[in-house]
Write a structure and sequence with these properties.
The protein is of the alpha/beta class. 18% of the residues lie in helices and 32% in strands. It has a 24-stranded parallel β-sheet that branches. A 14-stranded parallel β-sheet has the order 9-14-20-23-26-29-32-34-36-38-40-42-45-47. Helix 6 packs parallel to helix 7. The N terminus is likely disordered.
């Protein structure tokens, strides 16, 4: 920084100081002294954090020198869970026991650096039991116990805070899939020493085994490095047995997460440095960890398998051959720059389909190339046309690169005349297809029209025999990218556009990473959702751009009885840094959510011109529970309907009312509770802005099942109508600005109770601030709000007592 200063890279430059030497020598001296002080402080290294955390242990904790190999120690992932007030010093070393760590002088070096208030996490046991190795062997009841005690006492003598950790479990299952003993007496000795010395204990042996058991014998394999693609199992040179002791990057992170959670659970003073997530009451260790896909470096060039990039020759067979060859060895299928016409592409395990810059994969408009298959449609089993890109029961797959997929959706989708201008409509009609009887609807073919009319008449065919659908095959539009029961999925960088129906549809998939993907469809394209995560578990969606004709980011889990029978929620997803344009909804849950949804974390997203912003929708008959949804940081403009919508009766009204349609809340009669009764509960929404919406917030539950436990905090919503809250309980608005412009009241509450309206801001001169109706409304609190800005503060239904609403503060 000093050199930059003297080169004049800052606003104050030396030539401007020279005249001051003549005019005011004393001032110049002061300026020079200040500049010198600035330079000295700027060049001084930043102060060390006041707290050090030393990790003392073996290879399961240690740093790894060669990061090109997949082995990791959990200590390498630990720092992400702490703030800058603590520095982690990982002194753990591969292959060390308490005995060798001490005799090599490593413990002495730790003691030299310890300061009062520092922390020492001590974890040994993997190598102490090696009786045949005189360098490392430390019997559990004698030397191992003695050295652990010594480490604890000497750390205490330095004023530090020692914490003992039992060794992490070795993943040993017996033939019946049950846990096998893997550490003998060593974990018990650690527990006894911790109790005797009165120091904290983190029982990682039990915690890791709880994790292994939860995941099962197969599900726990990815925690360990030798199960990663390309290592050991697929190594023809040294087919050694799999390593069930040392972690992959994923496993190391999961174990580090367990340690951080234990620090918090035991309320150690160190917990004050645990890093908080942006979401209310959440820490970074609360967020899901996603297992990433990994591939060998082998490359299979599509052009070497007979493909021709002229946009005329069908390359379906070339894609099949290239993917087949790559699957056998593992690696990447490279699609070079060019226009590649093809039919359906079927993915395989351990294949990364990579589109080079300038590569355009154009799916054929010949619908006969997509055979009818048994699959799902909107949450239920169905017969549909085969997806342009698909994969079933795969592990470790990817689609990457900056190229483009075009799904030829125009050849599949019907179009309303009202969606196009006259020139566009005439061009579409001239392209072929057939028109409806009223000439207001275009269909790609007679079969497409027949299927659509059957669906409109609510007479769908229930058969699951593809032969029974041949006459309406053109109606059975496929989802464009369909992945079913797949694991370790990476979708990154590419553009996917012009989909026949849903664009990206993972179903019953696990560990999905969707990064920097662009999905584009015409704004009028029916059912062209950008992303539908259905009954999926563990994932990350980040940096994406979606501009489509239906919902943008959509969470689903099956429809009605079939969804409940499947019973698989969509859970443990992070969605961040994503933009959605012109969709029906920005971030959406439902309406097919019969298996439930939970533990979803949404942050830093932008919705522009969508019908609804945050859209949570369901209906009677769905069933399912949606809970633990966290949203922080959403900005919206030009929202046609609701900025924030909770609707358990969403079919009662369209998101955007038609001209002349009543905007009053519908009267809903109660029905008996049953398995088809849906539930919404536990939403935390913060830091939301919206410039332009019809309604700021709509909460509409059912009389037999209210929407529960919703918190909306720090929001500014510019809208025609402010809040409509119907059939709800335990709803809290705090520091919410409702700039409603056209209707009164600013807030309407109907048949709801335990409603807290705290710090509400609104436009001065409003006719009515709050109207409360419905005989079941009670316990409504309006606090810290300037009610005098409204011509009338509160209006109550005649059936309600004055104590229904309490106004307090200001």
């Amino acid at each position: 920084m000093g050199g930059g200063f003297f080169r004049g890279e800052y606003p104050w430059q030396w030539p401007t100081l020279i005249p001051l030497l003549v005019l005011m020598k004393s001032t110049l001296v002061l300026l020079l002294a200040g500049a010198l002080a600035f330079l000295t402080s700027a060049s001084r290294p930043p102060a060390e954090p006041t707290t050090q955390l030393f990790l003392v242990g073996d290879s399961t904790m240690s740093e790894k020198a060669d990061l090109t190999k997949p082995e990791r120690g959990w200590g390498m992932a630990f720092s992400q869970y702490f703030d800058n007030g603590v520095v982690i010093r990982n002194t753990a070393v591969n292959g060390r026991s308490t005995k060798s760590f001490y005799r090599e002088g490593r413990w002495a070096k730790v003691l030299e650096q310890l300061k009062p208030g520092d922390w020492v996490f001590i974890q040994f046991g993997h190598n102490d039991s090696k009786v045949e190795d005189s360098v490392r062997s430390a019997p559990a009841q004698t030397l191992y116990r003695q050295l652990l005690t010594k480490f604890v006492q000497e750390a205490k003598a330095k004023g530090a805070n020692p914490v003992l950790l039992t060794p992490v479990g070795r993943r040993y299952f017996d033939d019946a899939g049950q846990r096998k003993d893997d550490h003998g007496e060593y974990p018990g000795v650690v527990r006894e020493v911790a109790k005797a010395q009165k120091v904290p204990l983190i029982d990682m042996h039990e915690k890791t085994w709880a994790l292994y058991s939860q995941l099962g014998e197969v599900g726990s394999r990815p925690l360990f490095w030798s199960y990663q693609n390309g290592y050991y199992q697929a190594n023809p040179v040294a087919p050694a047995k799999n390593d069930n002791t040392h972690f992959s990057a994923y496993g190391a992170t999961r174990v580090a997460q367990l340690v951080a959670q234990s620090v918090k659970a035991q309320n150690l003073p160190l917990a004050s440095h645990l890093r908080r997530a942006v979401f209310e009451s959440k820490y970074m260790f609360d967020l899901p960890v996603v297992l990433q896909a990994s591939f060998k470096k082998d490359t299979f060039n599509l052009a070497q398998y007979g493909a021709v990039a002229d946009g005329q020759i069908l390359n379906t067979e070339a894609f099949r051959k290239a993917i087949e060859a790559c699957a056998g060895a593992g690696g990447t299928v490279l699609v070079p720059r060019g226009l590649w016409l093809t039919g359906p592409i079927v993915l395989k395990s351990n294949v990364n389909l990579h589109l080079a810059t300038g590569a355009l994969v154009q799916f054929t408009a010949d619908r006969r190339q997509y055979p009818l298959i048994k699959t799902t449609w909107e949450g239920e089993e169905a017969i549909r046309s085969q997806a342009p890109i698909s994969g079933v029961d795969l592990t470790n797959i990817a689609i990457t690169g900056t190229g483009t997929f075009d799904g030829a959706g125009d050849a599949w989708r019907p179009v309303k005349k009202s969606k196009l201008n006259e020139t566009q409509w005439q061009k579409l009609v001239a392209s072929g297809g057939v028109l409806s009887e009223k000439k207001d609807y275009w269909y790609p073919s007679a079969g497409s029209m027949k299927g659509n009319l059957l669906a409109t008449a609510s007479t769908p065919r229930k058969s699951l025999n593809p032969a029974d659908f041949d006459d309406i095959r053109d109606f059975l539009r496929p989802n464009m990218l369909s992945l079913t029961s797949c694991k370790q999925i990476l979708l990154e960088g590419f553009t996917i556009q012009n989909s026949p129906a849903w664009t990206i549809h993972p179903l019953l998939c696990e560990n999905i990473t969707l990064r920097n993907v662009t999905a584009k469809n015409p704004w009028y394209g029916q059912n062209t959702d950008a992303l539908d995560l259905e009954s999926c578990r563990n994932g990350l969606v980040e940096g994406c751009t979606f501009d489509v004709g239906d919902d943008g980011i959509c969470i689903k889990s099956g429809r009605d009885e079939q969804g409940r029978k499947r019973g698989v929620p969509t859970e443990n997803f992070i969605v961040r840094d994503t933009k959605v344009y012109h969709a029906h909804g920005g971030f959406v849950i439902g309406s097919e959510m019969s298996g439930g949804a939970r533990n979803l974390f949404v942050s830093n997203c932008t919705f522009i011109g969508t019908d609804v912003g945050l859209r949570f929708k369901t209906a009677r008959g769905r069933g399912g529970v949606v809970e633990n949804i966290f949203v922080d940081g959403v900005d919206m403009t030009d929202i046609a309907g609701e900025a924030i919508l909770f609707d358990m009766y969403y079919a009662a009204k369209d998101p955007v009312p038609l001209a002349g349609e009543s905007t009053a809340p519908p009267v809903i009669a109660a029905q008996p509770l049953n398995e088809g009764t849906p539930q919404f509960q536990g939403f935390r929404i913060r830091n939301v802005t919206c410039k332009g919406a019809t309604t700021g917030i709509l909460v509409r539950g059912l009389p037999e099942m209210s929407i529960k436990d919703i918190s909306i905090e720090n929001a500014v919503l510019e809208c025609k109508k402010g809040l409509v809250c119907q059939e709800a309980e335990n709803i809290r608005l705090k520091n919410v600005t409702l700039l409603s412009t056209e209707t009164k009241p600013v807030m309407e509450v109907q048949n709801s109770h335990n409603i807290a309206l705290d710090g509400i801001r609104y436009a001065s001169g409003a006719e009515l601030l709050l109207r409360v109706t419905g005989e079941r409304s009670k316990d409504i609190r309006l606090t810290n709000t300037d009610v005098k800005k409204a011509k009338k503060a509160v209006e109550l239904d005649q059936k309600l007592g004055k104590k229904t609403v309490v106004v307090a503060g200001r």
